[in-house]
Structures are given as C-alpha cells and as structure tokens.
Design a protein that fits this description.
Hypothetical Protein Yqey, Chain: A, domain1; 150 residues; Arc Repressor Mutant, subunit A; mainly alpha; 74% helix
Length: 150
Amino acid sequence: MSIKETLRSDLTEAIRGRNEIVSSTIRMVLTAITNEEVAGKEARVLSDDEVIVVLSREAKKRREAAEAFEGAGHAEKAALEKAEGEVIAKYLPAQLSADEIKQIIADAIASTGAAGPADMGKVMGAIKPKIAGKADGALVSSLVKESLNK
C-alpha cells in the first residue's frame, strides 16, 4: 500500500472515530499532495519518495508555525501545530541521528573530493538523495558547513 493510500485509509478511520485533529491534518496533507500532482504542465501521480518530500515540507511548516506561535505567546495555537506535526510525523521515515548524518556527510566529502566551503553544493547534491525526508535540511546544512570548515 502506498503512503497516499495509507493516508486515505487513515482519513476514513479518523472521520469514523471523529478525531478532528487527525482528520483535518490528513485532509490538509492530501490536498498538498494533490496540489503537487497537478502543478506543472501535466498532472501525474507522485511516487512514495515524492510524497515523503511533500510530507517533510508540511511537517517543517508545522514546526516553524509552532515556534512562531510560542514566541508570540499563543500556546493553544502552538499546541495545535505541534499536534498536526505529530500526525504528519507518523507517515515519515524514521529520522536520522546527528551521528548518522555526520557519517553520510563524511562519505560524501570523501567521494566528491570536497576541500572547503566552496564545495558545499557538491556535498549537498551527493547527500540529498540519501537523507530526503529523513533529516531536517537546516540541520544537515549546518553540519555540512561545520565539516567543510575544519
């Protein structure tokens, strides 16, 4: 069963169970997936890897919104955003630890022959397929910068 099919099945269960947070979050995610499918010149069906990219983007939006609401003193809205983020996280692959990311970065630096900060694009290009949906891009970027500045 694809991720999209799982989302649809879980949506039906959430509606039947009257779970508002789960049902509204899954509806929002399915809408984002559909928007991605119809964007561009011709409509297409997203692969599971592409769906994971959309889910990662939506999860990041929830994290950032929760932080913004907390900073503005809106605890209830921040809690809602966090709850939505937790629902989305159930459909994402397990996140890589910092040590695992550092190992992937070290391998990429060795394979690309990167020597300094100017080669960051090469390293990011090499590791992006390995970490897609499994790690926060900002964390990866900072770890790559740190590794290349040594």
